[in-house]
Write a structure and sequence with these properties.
The protein has 482 residues and is mainly beta. Helices cover 5% and strands 35% of the residues. The chain has one domain: Neuraminidase (6 Propeller). Strand 16 and strand 17 form a beta hairpin. 51% of the residues are buried.
Length: 482
């Protein structure tokens, strides 16, 4: 089936349609505002027909008979290395510790696919805090893996480097190699563990990570809304880090709008070890072993803000994907609205994306950067997840996203989403894939993979192919046109 092209007319909501009427129809409101938010009129209507094809069963990561099969937090492509037999395999991070490559070239129901463990943070580091070991949807443990854009380029500082984000017991602060904890939790806030960014060096012969180096460490307040997505800009080699507001509900310690804390922010740093001499546009971190662009908004001498902060006002941007010179940020909402935001890789220094002042859009908060799309908590939806923005393939030109809990998968026009980062242009309608199994029978991801009334969906893309994974059942599948 042909993919809908971006040249088709868009069903946009005009302001003349009535802000209040639309807000009432989709159940939206604002935080701390007397007027309602507004949203796109085409509210998740059925669209393209698709099927899902299982391509891998991941290993069981718990010996407890009542535990879920796995606790998968992200999958990503693996950069090709000359002569490597693992080229084309996918990389998987399991919150319980293992980070491994998986061969998706063959699949047999109930049989674990061939894997190669890169590193297991449960044994390669100390004090990994995985939260509830049997829950299967813990937001702690290993959160993300990302390769440096120069991973496969010899004689560069990023050669064979990859990075992990994980949560570790506060007792590990005194271990050799732990970076100084210059970032404190807000007064009265708890700390469940520390968010730790590490750099690893790949041994290409064994395809295993070695020589871990701590890059950044700061407290995680609660057991949710932690630090997740790591995305590199291949042009500048800068790493963008998505940091949630620290957890609980409603940003109880008011950190997302506070430049003295990393919570609720997108960070921008160079995570490689700074040399004796830095480029003139970079500064040396005092709270970790990294450097940062001097044009980060709070990096000026004497500014009380954190040097690493790039943009503020996020709740839980668990996933981000790069699209050219932009990041598409999927920010989980509070009680009302899930957001898709567009962040410029350069030029958005200090920009405010709204939380915890507003969910969705409100005419009372036009000094913030508005979401370009999103959805209310209807149809079992609870938490947004990204994502894929394929350059080619059957879904080229679309941005694909989903809901963690319901497993519903949606798409929007890629060019329209980037153009809608303006208060003069309404949010872009999202449409829902009509799902079928590989046999062509209508079936939702919840029906196929649900556990405890959750799909725990994750999404990724590799060379135009769109993949999903179920966090608790550990099954990778490909989404294809039907």
């Amino acid at each position: 089936m042909a993919v809908e092209k971006s040249t088709k007319p868009r069903n946009f909501l005009t302001r003349a349609a009535g802000i209040a009427a639309v807000a009432a129809a989709v159940g939206l409101g604002t935080t701390g505002a007397s007027e309602p938010a507004f949203a796109a009129t085409a509210n998740l209507s059925p669209g393209l027909s698709a099927k899902f094809r299982p391509i891998a069963q991941l290993p069981k990561s718990s010996t407890n008979s009542t535990a879920s099969m796995a606790n998968i937090n992200n999958i990503t492509k693996h950069p090709s290395l000359a002569g490597s037999s693992y080229n084309g395999w996918l990389t998987v991070a399991d919150g319980r510790g293992p980070v491994y490559l998986v061969n998706t070239s063959s699949f047999k129901q109930g049989v674990t696919n061939q894997t190669r463990t890169i590193v297991n943070l449960k044994t390669a580091t100390q004090g990994l805090d995985i939260g509830n070991p049997t829950a299967g949807n813990s937001e702690l443990g290993v959160r993300w893996i990302e390769y440096h854009p120069d991973f496969a380029k010899p004689n560069t500082k990023g050669y064979l480097k990859f990075y992990t984000m994980s949560c570790h017991a506060t007792s590990t602060r005194s271990l050799a190699g732990a970076v100084a904890l210059a970032h404190k939790a807000p007064p009265g806030a708890p700390t469940v563990c520390d968010n730790v960014l590490r750099e690893w060096t790949m041994d290409p012969a064994a395809m295993t990570g070695k020589s871990p180096r701590e890059v950044l460490r700061f407290p995680q307040l609660y057991a949710n809304h932690g630090t997740d997505a790591l995305v590199f800009d291949p042009a500048t080699k800068l790493l963008y880090i998505a940091v949630g507001d620290g957890g609980k509900q409603g940003d109880p310690h008011n950190v997302s709008q506070n430049k003295q804390y990393l919570y609720g922010k997108i960070l921008r740093i160079d995570p490689t070890k700074p040399g004796a001499t830095l480029p003139s546009n970079m500064g040396r971190a005092t709270e970790g072993t990294f450097s940062y662009p001097k044009d980060n908004p709070y990096a000026a001498p004497g500014d009380t803000g954190r040097d690493a902060i790039y943009a503020i006002g996020f709740r839980h941007p668990e996933t981000m994907i790069r699209d050219g010179n932009h990041l598409i940020v999927f920010d989980m909402g509070g009680s009302k609205f899930e957001e898709v935001d567009i962040l410029k890789l350069d030029g958005d220094e200090g920009k405010n994306f709204g939380w915890d002042k507003v969910e969705g859009r409100s005419p009372q908060f036009t000094t913030t950067i508005p979401p370009v799309a999103g959805y209310a908590h209807i149809g079992g939806n609870k938490a947004i997840i990204g994502g894929a923005a394929p350059e080619s393939g059957p879904y080229g030109g679309l941005v694909i996203l989903g809901d963690i809990v319901s497993g519903n998968v949606y798409y929007g026009d890629r060019d329209a989403l980037k153009a809608a980062r303006s208060w003069s242009i309404p949010m872009v309608p999202l449409r829902q894939f009509v799902m079928h199994n590989n046999s062509g029978t209508p079936q939702t991801l919840m029906q196929a993979f649900g556990r405890n009334s959750r799909v725990d969906l994750r999404l990724a893309e590799d060379n135009g192919r769109v993949f999903g994974v179920t966090k608790q059942r550990g099954i990778i599948f490909e989404i294809l046109p039907r």
